[in-house]
Amino acid sequence: MTNLLIVDDEKEVGNFLSHLFTSKGYYVKVANSGKEFSSIDFTRNHFHAAMIDLKLPDTDGLSLLQHLKRQQPGCKAVIMTGYSTIKTAIDAMKLGASDYIEKPFDDIDLLETQIDQLLISTITSTQQHINDLASEVGFIVGQNEGMNQLIQTAYKVARKNVNVLIEGETGTGKEVLSRFIHQASQRSHESFIGVNCGAISESLLESELFGHEKGAFTGATQQRKGLFEIASKGTLFLDEIAEASHAIQVKLLRVLETREFMRVGSESILRTNTRLVAASNENLHEAVQQKKFREDLFYRLNVVHLKIPPLRNRKEDIPLLIYHFLQRHANIGVTFSDDAMEVLQNYDWPGNVRELSNFVTRVITLSDSNDATITADHLPLFNHAAVMSATIEPTKQTAAKKQESHFEIYLQRWVNDILVLFEQENEIDLEKVLAQVKELESQVGKAFILRTLKDTLGNRKETAKRLQITMRKLRYLLNEKKEGGSKA
């Protein structure tokens, strides 16, 4: 027999649910307070599922949920809540609740279906469904505990018609996670449309989101539907939401509050049922405190908050990610040796998963053979110690050879840093980039001098001659003489 626990301070609700599920053949235990819940002997009473009200007169539902999950981890819990406490219900799901139900129960058939499906489904089948959906959209979860908690929460809230805010550094996979949420939702058969709020000017973004009428502005030669209209029954993904202007933020707030909007140049009100998923690589709470982002819009977006950890905090997943990226290239047999994989796991990946993906693509593109094996010897940029051990025994290296290795590491690291800067979508400090170029010029000059000094056995005059520079320039590049210093 299926055992069901109901915790609700309203006796009428408890009696109704008890009658409803008893008639379906369930054994039902009802507790009308936290005190009655505490009196239950969980060593003798095993429950398959529990329905817990969030607000009780002598305690709160979250505390009871945590106690229940400690006593019976396998018990599937459903939180009963009013709309005003949906955010707390989401927090409950992060603590282990399987679902939440809004009160009052307007649709009894839906209530029965939710509980029946919860009891019929197994952990194995649910997890397999999550894995299948994640694989389908290309979201690699891996073994990291934080990522697994993230995907479980995302899966639970996906079926609810609530807004989601995803935060994470550039390149962590915010759009891919939003696609997972769409695929796991009841809207999966409808449109998923994404737009980068930081890549479009304010006027164009307004037209993109809300549409425009013919003649609304110069170049508006015909009527155009906006994304809120096109994705009315689907999911709209707003990337880099922090980059939206205050005027756009006001219009977004109105849509979220009323579900109504107007095309640019129109006075007709249109309605939308779009499910909104927003993303930002900035901390929106801090942006609110700095008056860069509207507080009321933030709370409308932040019904469910998901934060993707950076790759440096989930390095155990790097081998799986690399394997996934390699599989995207047909007929490629490129592999990574164990020492190479160790080197890559010791690197911090400031560009996150996107940088790792670009790195794998570059490796495949530059490989001499489709069946190449990448070793630590090919990766001086990532780990100096690995290069030293992979090229030659340290005890046999000369000082000059070490200097060459240092330069090789510096050069490839410089190239990688510049590529990361070039690929990122945020504002770029060009002066800082030009300073890095100047530093590169200095290091390149010094490297050529040191190599030539080795070849000439330290003969500076011969070195200067081979490099076609003066002795003054030689000393200058070696930082032995500052510009405007004493004579040579």
UniProtKB/TrEMBL annotation:
CDD domains: AAA. Gene3D superfamilies: 1.10.8.60, 3.40.50.2300, Homeodomain-like, P-loop containing nucleotide triphosphate hydrolases. The keyword Transcription applies. It comes from the Bacteria. Pfam families: AAA_lid_14 (PF25601), HTH_8 (PF02954), Response_reg (PF00072), Sigma54_activat (PF00158). Residues 3-118 form the Response regulatory domain. Keywords: ATP-binding, DNA-binding, Nucleotide-binding, Phosphoprotein, Transcription, Transcription regulation. The modification 4-aspartylphosphate is found at D53. The keyword Phosphoprotein applies. Residues 140-365 form the Sigma-54 factor interaction domain. This is Sigma-54-dependent transcriptional regulator. It comes from Bacillus songklensis. The lineage of its organism: Bacteria, Bacillati, Bacillota, Bacilli, Bacillales.
